[in-house]
Amino acid sequence: MSLFRKKSISQMLENEKAKALKKDLGAFDLTMLGIGAIIGTGIFVLTGVAAAEHAGPALIISFIISGLACVFAALCYAEFASTLPISGSAYTYSYVAFGELFAWILGWDLILEYGLACSAVASGWSGYFQGLLDGFGIHLPTALSSAYDPQKGTLIDLPAIVIIFLLTFLLTRGIRESARINSIMVIIKLAVVVLFIGVGVWYVKPANWTPFMPFGFQGVATGAATVFFAYIGFDAVSTAAEEVRNPQRDMPIGIIASLAVATVLYIVVSLILTGIVPYTQLDVKNPVAFALTYIHQDWVAGFVSLGAIIGITTVLLVMLYGQSRLFYAISRDGLLPKVFSRVNEKTKTPVMNSWLIAVLVSIFAAVVPLNKLAELTNIGTLFAFITVSIGILVIRKTQPNLKRGFKVPLVPLIPILAILFCVYLVLQLPALTWEAFAVWLVLGLVIYFTYSRRHSNLQHEQDQQSHRAG
Questions:
Q1: pTM listed for this prediction
Q2: What is the C-alpha to C-alpha distance for residues 373 and 359, in angstroms, rounded to an integer?
Q3: CB of 82 within 8 A of CB of 392?
Q4: What are 414-464's pLDDT values in tens digits?
C-alpha cells in the first residue's frame, strides 16, 4: 500500500547530498549540544516540585528509572544516527523502518515535542530573567511580564519573545558559531552545578532522607514520569547528523556521553538537594538556589541563579535548532511546503525555516500559559522513543547486512527494555494528556491526507513511474 511506502537508505543519502548542510561539528560539539539541551529546566526547576509532591527523598530512584529508559533508548538512537547521518532524527528513521505514514505521524509528534518544549522553556527563561532584573530594582510593566491572564493583568510575555528571536538570529548565522557559543554556556552551567555539589555536600543531614519514600512507589513512578522532562534533549543531538564531519563515529559519542553526564549530575544533585532541605519545603520554582539560601550560602545561590538562566538559554537554543532541522527534513521529503527546506547559500542554514519557527514558538510562549500542557512534551518524546526502539528490531530483521557505525548491544534485550520502560512511564501520565495528544495526532492525519500525501516526493516518483509504464 502507498501509505506504507518506504524510503531506501540510498534515497535518503541522495537527498542529503542534494542539499548538504555545512559539516562543521565534531564529537565534542555534539556532547555540548546534548548537555546544553538536557541540563536546564530539569535540574534547576523540576527537582523541587517532584520531590515535594511525588517522590520525596526517593527522587533519586525517579531519576534512575527515567535515566534507564533514556539510556536504553539512547543506544537505539545512536545506532540509527550512525547508520543514517541525516537530519530529521526519529522521523527519518521511521521513514526507512515503517514507511511514509508512520514517518509523518512521528514527525508531527516531534513538532509537538519541540514546539511546546521551546515555548515552555522560553516562558521559564522569562521568569528567571525577570527575577534577575528584580534583584537590580528593574521591573517590567505587568502587561508585558507574562502570558495572557486577565486576573493578573498580564497580556504578553515580552522577554520570552526577545530571547527566542535573539537565539534564532544566532542560529541563522551558522552552526559553527552557534555550537561555539553553546559550548561556552554549557561549561559555565556545568561549573555552577559542580559548585552547588561542592558546597552543598557539607550541609547534608541524613535525617532529611527519612522517610525515604513518603508517597510509596507510586509516588516514585509519578515522579519518574515528571522528571522525564529533565532528560528531553539528547534526541535533539541526532537532528545534527547532517552537519557532523564524521557521523558514524561522533554521533554515538555525542548522544551517549551527553546523557551519561546529565544522568550522573541529576542523581548527585537530587541526593544532595533532599539531604539539605526537608522534601516538604522544596515546592519552589528555584529549588537549587533555595537550598543554598536555606544553608545561608547566599553568594553561591546568586551564582546558581545566573547559571540557571544560562542553562535554560542553552536548552532553548538546542530545541530551536532541533525544530528547524526537523522541519527541514520533512519539507525536503515534500510533506511540508518547500519553504522550510530552503538553505541560505552563505551560512548553509535554513534561514526562512528558522524565522517562521521563531514566530510560531514566540506566539505560544508569549500569549499561552503552558503549565497545563507540559506533559504533552513528555508523551510526545516517549512516543518517539518507543517508535525508534521498535524500529531497531525491524531494521535488524529487514536489513541485517546494513553498514552500521554503532550497533546496539544485546539485541533484542536492550530495545525491548527501552520499550517497556517508556511504556511504563507514558502510562503514568494523566488522561487529559492522552486526550490532547490524540487530538493532535488526528489533526496531523488530516494534514497528511489533504496536503502531505499528494505533495510527497515518493508520490511524485510513483506517478512518474506509472506514467512511463503507461
A1: 0.84
A2: 20
A3: no
A4: 999 999 999 988 888 888 888 988 999 999 999 999 999 988 888 777 777
